[in-house]
């Protein structure tokens, strides 16, 4: 399931002006950023087919209000009110409005646009982008208005001829991210403060970087607890003990859960046969994969695919 590039996004959003949208004036190396109004998108796309379920080669943050459905990874969220949705290039997703009465804004940007500088966190360090995080945040009316005001500043600034507008847009984007982060007081944004916490973070990042699998010819590079321990230069027993203390799960259980999630995505969103999926995920044969999948989900791959 290859990632959809920005060029394809713009062709779908506004085919007549795709080239202009994709290549606005910007300093070299600043990366890509753009912002859109949801109501305008609905009007422009009312006669077009629904969004495909894919990974995108960019980040997307959407402030949306209206009856709609968000599908990401193997989860489905039904929305009735305002919400902010953080979409990552790592996870396939799509948004399906139930009617034309949708309002809000969204922005898209690449890794390069928010390259870390000294003292600044990368996006992947924020809780919304952690492996397994829930990326849809309900937004009350008052907060919806405050976040919408930031989006409107983005829309105004991107149309300006200010020489440093991308620096200002970057500041607005970070302002919005941290505004929403403050609404989630139970989620810690503290940096890892000891060796065990660092190892846990390194393992989670390494596990997530094994995915996505984008063709039947691609294979998981790391499959077992021993593979991860060797890559992290620690003893497998030490890795298992640290992860068990930090998460409540063994190394093998964490790997298996993520492999099962990827299997669900591949079964539902690709036309790969079950043998190809089993092979890509590192199973010796289809029987081993089927037994694994049933233990994880309670269903056979065939039943799950439907």
Description:
The protein contains 12 helices and 8 strands. It is of the alpha+beta class and 306 residues long. A hairpin with a 2-residue loop joins β3 and β4. The longest helix has 19 residues, at 251-269. The model is unreliable at 16-20 and 187-192 (pLDDT under 50).
Based on the model shown, name its key terms.
43% helix; 306 residues; Arc Repressor Mutant, subunit A; 3-stranded antiparallel β-sheet; Jelly Rolls
Brief overview:
This protein is an alpha+beta fold and 306 residues long.
Shape: globular
Query: What is the CATH class designation of the largest domain?
Result: Mainly Beta
Helix content: 40-55%
The N- and C-terminal alpha carbons lie at a distance of 19 Å
Question: Can you identify the CATH superfamily of the largest domain?
Answer: Regulatory protein AraC
State the strand order across the main sheet.
Answer: 1-7-2-5-8
Quaternary structure type: single chain
Low-confidence stretches: 16-20, 187-192
Number of domains: 2
Count all strands and give the number.
8
User: Structural class, from helix and strand content?
Assistant: alpha+beta
Q: Largest sheet, described in full?
A: 5 strands, antiparallel
Number of helices: 12
Mean pLDDT: 83
């Amino acid at each position: 399931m290859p990632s959809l590039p920005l060029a394809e996004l713009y062709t779908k959003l506004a085919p007549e002006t795709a080239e202009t949208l994709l290549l606005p004036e910007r300093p070299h190396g600043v990366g890509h950023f753009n912002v859109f109004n949801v109501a305008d998108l609905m009007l422009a796309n009312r006669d077009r087919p629904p969004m495909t379920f894919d990974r995108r080669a960019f980040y997307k943050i959407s402030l949306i209000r209206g009856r709609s459905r968000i599908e990401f990874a193997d989860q489905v969220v039904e929305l009735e009110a305002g919400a902010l949705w953080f979409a990552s290039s790592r996870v396939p997703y799509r948004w399906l409005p139930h009617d034309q009465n949708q309002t809000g804004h969204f922005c898209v940007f690449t890794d390069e646009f928010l390259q870390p500088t000294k003292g600044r966190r990368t996006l992947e360090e924020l809780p919304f982008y952690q492996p397994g995080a829930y990326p849809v945040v309900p937004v009350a009316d008052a907060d919806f208005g405050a976040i919408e005001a930031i989006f409107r500043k983005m829309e105004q600034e991107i149309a300006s001829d200010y020489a440093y507008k991308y620096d200002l847009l970057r500041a607005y984007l970070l302002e919005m991210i941290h505004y929403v982060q403050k609404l989630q007081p139970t989620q810690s944004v503290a940096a890892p403060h000891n060796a065990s916490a660092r190892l846990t973070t390194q393992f989670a990042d390494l596990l997530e970087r094994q995915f996505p699998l984008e063709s039947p010819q691609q294979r998981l590079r790391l499959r077992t607890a021993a593979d991860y321990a060797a890559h992290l230069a620690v003893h497998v027993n030490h890795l298992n003990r640290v992860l068990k203390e930090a998460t409540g799960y063994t190394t093998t259980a964490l790997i298996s859960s993520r492999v099962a999630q990827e299997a669900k995505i591949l079964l539902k969103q690709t036309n790969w046969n079950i043998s190809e999926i089993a092979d890509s995920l590192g199973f010796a044969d289809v029987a081993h994969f089927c037994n694994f999948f049933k233990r994880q989900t309670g269903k056979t791959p065939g039943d799950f695919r439907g």
